[in-house]
Design goal:
With 216 residues, the chain is α/β, with parallel strands linked by helices. It has helices at 37-49, 64-67, 70-77, 88-97, 172-181, 202-208, and strands at 4-10, 15-21, 26-30, 53-58, 81-84, 111-115, 120-123, 126-132, 141-145, 150-152, 157-158, 161-162, 191-193, 200-201. The protein binds zinc ion (2 copies).
């Protein structure tokens, strides 16, 4: 049966955390933003109630809102953290600025597996293809499921908008290039799961997204 997706919206940044799983009961957790104990439990209850086995912990990029639950997931499920190597410094930086955002209990995490363009993440009968899409963050990646027709896209595309580029590692032209030359090559019907807000499709954003209209 088809690959399934569960979304949780965690932390004051309203960040979307994704659990992707299939009939094998194997799953991956992408961008765990759980910080409060209640958020950790919401994620854990879903995993246990569905009898899921966590095979991979993945980050699209390492801004604070996407990494708050990394340490929890690593310890709870015994999986290493997988990110693009360029995000290493970004992840390290979270330790120093977390308290200024009020996250005084932030638990730091370190990655030990490096993701690259065209890597394939395998679990159960599902494959996620890694696409390198810098611009919002210098080492941003997205996870494409060609068979099921979706992409877990972090903060690259949003419904009617795009990721901000004023944070460290951000660059507007690079982001537009990632969208035009990578994201928009996916089939129009591809469902785009965003790091914040509702999901959208590649076709809808191609037609309507004002930020991507310039070179359409
Ligand atoms: Zn971000
Ligand atoms: Zn974000």
């Amino acid at each position: 049966m088809a690959t399934q997706i569960q979304v949780f919206t965690f932390n004051p940044f309203m960040e979307n955390t994704y659990v992707v799983y299939d009939d094998s009961k194997e799953c991956v957790i992408i961008d765990p933003g759980c910080y409060e104990r209640s958020e950790q439990l919401a994620l854990h209850n879903f995993i246990t109630q569905n009898g899921l086995q966590v095979k991979h912990l993945l980050n699209t990029h390492c801004h604070i809102d996407h990494v708050l639950g990394n340490a929890y997931v690593m310890h709870q499920y015994g999986v290493p953290l997988e990110i693009h190597e360029i995000e290493k410094t970004q992840l390290k930086a979270v330790e120093s600025y977390a308290p200024s955002y009020g996250f005084t209990q932030y638990q730091p995490s370190e990655a030990s597996v490096w993701l690259q363009e065209e890597d394939v993440i395998r679990f159960g009968s599902t494959e996620l293809r890694v696409m390198f899409t810098p611009g919002h963050a210098a080492g941003h990646v997205v996870f494409v499921c060609d068979a099921a027709g979706f992409v877990i896209n972090g903060d690259v595309l949003f419904q009617g908008s795009i990721g901000r580029t004023d944070l460290p590692g951000g660059d507007f032209d690079t982001l537009i290039q990632s969208i035009q030359q990578k994201m928009f090559l996916l089939p129009d019907e591809t469902v785009v799961y965003c790091g914040h807000g509702p999901s959208t499709t590649i076709g809808y954003e191609k037609r309507t997204n004002p930020f991507c209209a310039l070179s359409r």
